[in-house]
What we know:
Elements: H1 4-23, E1 29-35, E2 39-42, E3 48-55, E4 59-65, E5 78-84, E6 90-97, H2 106-109, E7 113-120, E8 123-133, E9 137-147, E10 158-166, E11 180-183, E12 190-198, E13 201-209, E14 215-226, E15 236-241, E16 244-252, H3 255-260, E17 268-276, E18 281-286, E19 292-302, E20 305-314, E21 326-333, E22 343-346, H4 349-355, H5 358-367, H6 371-376, E23 378-386, E24 392-409, E25 415-433, E26 439-452, E27 460-464, E28 467-471, E29 494-500, E30 507-513, E31 533-535, E32 538-548, H7 550-558, H8 562-568, E33 573-586
Antiparallel strand pairs: 1-33, 2-33, 3-4, 4-5, 5-6, 7-8, 8-9, 9-10, 11-12, 12-13, 13-14, 15-16, 16-17, 17-18, 19-20, 20-21, 21-22, 23-24, 24-25, 25-26, 27-28, 28-29, 29-30, 31-32, 32-33
Amino acid sequence: MIDLKTYLTKKGFVVLLAFLSLGYFSHAQYMEFEWSDEYRFSNRKTGFFTEFIGANQTSVYLLQRNISKSKPYDNSKVKIIALNRNSMAQDTMVSIKGYPENESMASTLDELDFVTSVVADGRVLVFWRKLINTNTTRTEEIYGQVFKADLQPATKILKVFAYKQDVKDHPSVYDPTMCVVLTDENSDHLVLGTERFNEGNLEFYYATFSSGLATNKTGVVPLPQKADSYPGQLTSDYELKENKLFIRSTVDYTKEEKIELLPRRVDHFPAFTLADLATQRSTSIELRGAELSITDFSYQTFGNSTRVIGFFGDFSEDTTGTDKHGLFYADIDHESFEASEVKYISFDRSTLNRLFPKKRMRKREKEGIDEDELLASRFDIEHIEAMSDNSLVLFFTREYNHTESDTRSNLSGENVYQFDHFYKKKDIFAMRLSEAGEIMWSRSLERMITYQGEDVSDLRVVYKYDEFFVLYGNEDAELKPPSNRKKHRHLTEELEYAIFNPSSGRGKVYTTEVNEPKTDPKDKQYLDPNSATIVDGQVLFYTMNIRQNPLWIAANIICLPTLYYTAVSGNTKQAKAQFTTMHIRDGKRPRKRR
C-alpha cells in the first residue's frame, strides 16, 4: 500500500518540475504587422523593387531598378526609396539614374554601371563602376556618392578606387564586378577591395574609407589559394566587423594531393583568414585532414578571440564521409594573431539522439529515404550568437542540393535539355558550445521544405527578451497558399516560428496569423518566410507579383513579331508589391475594445 504522505510528496515534486519547465517559456510574446501601401511598378517606367539596402534609426531603405534580360549591367533606371521604420509608409525617395531629374548627369551616368548601395553611419552610399577593357588588361574604376539620411546628396559622384589586371582572355563588358564593398554596422568604416593575381598567388587588395568616402589607407591580405592566372571572378567571401576582415575561401588540392586522396574524389578544402586592418596582420587556418570531410564552417568573435567552428565527417569510421560524426573548432587570438590547433569533438550517443530522435528517424524510414539524398546531405550553419559567458549558440539545418533534368525537342528536331536546381532543407538544429569547447546542450525541431535554386539560407534568428526567435519555412504548414502556382507555393497566411531558451536549449513551435480574425478573404495578405530580412532586430518582408502587361499580351496575339521584343526585354512586365514589418512584442496580445 502506498503511503499517502509519500504519494503527495512525489506528486508535488512532479508538479514542481512541470511548473519549472513552464518557466523556461515564461516570456509570452506576440507579433504585430505593419503594412505599407501597395506599390505599382512598370519595368520601363520605374523599374522593380530589388532588395532591402539597410536601415538607420528612422528609415528602411529600398533599392529599385529595372530588369534587363540581355544586359545584366544595363540598369537604365535606379532609384532609392526610404520607408518609415514603424509605419512602412514612404518618407522620401531619390532617383539616381534614368529619370528626368538625372538629365543633367546623363552623359556621366551612361558610362557607369551600378554596383551596389549600402547604409553606413546613417547615410546611404551608392557605388558605380567604369569598365575599361583592352585585349590584355581589365581595368575597373569605382565611383561613389553619399546621400544624407533624407536622401539629399551629400557629395557629388567621386572616383574612389581603381584596379588593373592583366588577363589572358579578352574581357567582356558582361563580366561581373570584382569590387567588394564592405561595411561595419558598429562603426562608420568602409572597405573597398578586389582580388588580384600576383606571381602565382591571389591577394586581396583593399582601401579603407570613412562614410564620407575620405580615403584612410590601403593594404594587402594574402589569400590561401594558388592560381596559374587571373581567375576572372571572386574566389572568397568577405565580411567586415570590428575593423577586421573575415575571409572564407575554397582552396583546390594539387594534382598530387588529389591522387593521394583517391578514391574519395575530394578536390578542394575550405580555409579561413582573419586580417586586422589597424595592424595589417593576418593569419589563415586550412580546414583539412587526410581522413576528414569538412562539410561546413562559420565563425564568431567572442571576448578577444575569433572561433572558427564547423562540422566534420570521419572517413576512417564511415567511408561516405557524411556529417553525423562531430564538430570542430579553432580559436585565433586577436592580440598575438596565433591560431590554436583544430580540436575535434565526436558526437556521443546522447547528442545524436537529440539531433536525430529515433521516432523521427523511424517515421522517415517508413516514408522512404533516397540513398543519394542521404549521402549528399550535410549540415549548414546559418546563424551563430555569442553569449555573455563566451559560449556560442549555433543554429543550423540539414540540406540537400539536387538537380532535375528535362528534355524536349526544338523545331529542328534536336534535343534541348533543361536543368532545374532544387534545395531541400530538413529540420532545425540548435547547439550551445562552451568557451572550453564542451557541448552544453543540443536540440532539433522537425520541418521540411524545398526551394528552387541553390544554397538557400532560410533561418531568420533574432535574440530578444532573453530568448531566440527563429523564423523558417515549412511545407507541412496547415494553411495553404493563395494558389497552386509554383511561384506562390511558399506564401502563407500563417507563419511558423520557434522559440529557444538559451539556458536549457528547449525549443517550442508557435504560429502567428498574418491577418486579423474575420478578415474578408479578398482582403487577406500572404507572406513568404524566405523573403524576410532582419534589420536591427526587426523582421521585414516583401511580397511582389510580377506579370506581363495585359496590353503587351494583346499585342503579342495580334502581332506575332512583338513576341521577340517580349522575349528579350523586361520592359513588357509590371508588378504590384507590399512591404511589411513584423514587430516581436513582449507579453500577451492586448484585447481589442469592441
